[in-house]
Amino acid sequence: MVGAAASSSYASPLCTFFVAACMSVSHNDTRQAFGRSRRRRQQLGKCSASSGSGGVMAVAMGMEKEATVDKKPPMEQRRVVVTGMGVETSLGHDPNTFYDNLLQGNSGISQIENFDCSEFPTRIAGEIKSFSTEGWVAPKLSKRMDKFMLYLLTAGKKALADGGVTDEVMAEFDKAKCGVLIGSAMGGMKVFNDAIEALKISYKKMNPFCVPFATTNMGSAMLAMDLGWMGPNYSISTACATSNFCILNSANHIIRGEADVMLCGGSDAVIIPIGLGGFVACRALSQRNNDPTKASRPWDSNRDGFVMGEGAGVLLLEELEHAKKRGATIYAEFLGGSFTCDAYHMTEPRPDGAGVILCIERALADAGISKEQINYINAHATSTPAGDLKEYQALAHCFGQNPELKVNSTKSMIGHLLGAAGAVEAVATVQAIRTGWVHPNINLENPDNGVDTSLLVGPKKERLNIKAALSNSFGFGGHNSSIIFVPYK
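The line above is the sequence of beta-ketoacyl-[acyl-carrier-protein] synthase I; the predicted structure tokens follow.
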């Protein structure tokens, strides 16, 4: 649990520029083998063009040819590790509390309390009941910002604290090689909605920061301003695949030498009338209002839609030698990932699963490992009728012959956090690697036809010595993403 004392060093200067603006307005081993294999497979695809990496041996079709171009150091020397994590969820506000609740099979789904939703057909969500920015965000900003930004800022700073990045450690960082890439699917919906309501009276009633505080990039920007980090800084918005896109792109910035440290992940806060109403209009949500803890039930034949969640997840990614030099605790290693597009339908998965299968295959190739080495998968599995089954079929196609494989869905307990889902599930994946325990799938009482439960984690946590773990996230628009973590050795 990150204490207030640990947080204090990050809170005081939060964006002096914006505070001033607010005031003025108010007044007017395993990895060695994996890594080498990964880079060689990449080089096979690039043939002679890839030989521009200094001293790297290019191997193609059994032919070996030495390359001697002294530019960048070989990419395989830049390994990416996870050295800190931060979360804001309905099951906890730090990675250990969050994961302990998952291991116990506790559900964070409950009746919505933030507003009167009695007229809606869905009245349940993975709502965060108690949330405080004290010690993390300046009070004046806390009153003006959208919750997606507040979740992002607190989770980001908690990831730094968890990674042992004190003021003294930060002073040694090259700020030009530290970046922030934390995305959001929906951005500041409440800030924007409040501005529209104010506009009905007069534009003079609008929050002067309604535009910047509603945009998806501003959370990353505000955190970077606060920290003084001048490296890569932007956001990616690919619906519910957002976090994985941000994590993989952050890792690539480190691999290419553009950054040594990256805070990455996602944040969303859409449990508000317009958010609930929008997804109700899509007919995507569960209506199991009388039994909320049973509402999110991936792969169960009685599922009736997903359950909205909210929160944020942030990983502190670091170049291995940089982490070792400062004596950081290394939780896991990021090995690779990939993206594809279904190019099929706005909201429905491709029936043949080709986009998901291609994404997984490319992720394996990028990581330089075989499908047999994957023995844990944190599935996207949202509890929707079509999505769950199509993903399961793709996973069975790719990994079904692996008797060691175990698959689970974190969403069975916290619901679907939209753009934050992948990052929170990445934290769960890293925690599974660290602890040797994988959390249960709750509410899987009557498996869908064709679902082999031997591949799925049961109703209780299970011991698993993870060799390599894959985490999937898919989003409206046909966005597919897969990322891979392994134990650090």
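Note on the example: The two ends are 26 Å apart (CA to CA). Confidence is low (pLDDT under 50) at residues 1-34, 36-74.
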